[in-house]
Design brief:
- The chain is built from two helices and no strands.
- It is mainly alpha-helical.
- Helix 1 runs antiparallel to helix 2.
Length: 87
């Protein structure tokens, strides 16, 4: 019975660690999005106005697409590293 209780405690601790890691990843991603929004805004917005002109919109879209591509590349690389470490 003691082994079973110990296993349950270990399983709960592992699940808690996993949930914490997921929440940390979400927080890091949100921080990256916020940071990148600032970067793209500063890069693409010449002067504030009530609507976006096509050049500004194109700049913002390409800036964000580069961010998404970079994030996916880093995430995939990190996943590969974790999977190699687990085996």
């Amino acid at each position: 019975a003691c082994l079973k209780e110990n296993w349950n405690a270990n399983a709960e601790a592992a699940e808690l660690q996993r949930l914490i890691a997921v929440e940390q990843q979400k927080a890091q991603f949100q921080a990256q999005v916020h940071n990148f929004t600032d970067v793209c805004w500063d890069k693409c917005m010449d002067k504030p106005s009530s609507k976006l002109d096509s050049r500004t919109e194109t700049c913002l879209v390409s800036c964000l697409e580069r961010f998404i591509d970079t994030t996916l590349t880093i995430t995939n690389r990190f996943t590969q590293m974790v999977q190699k470490g687990a085996h």
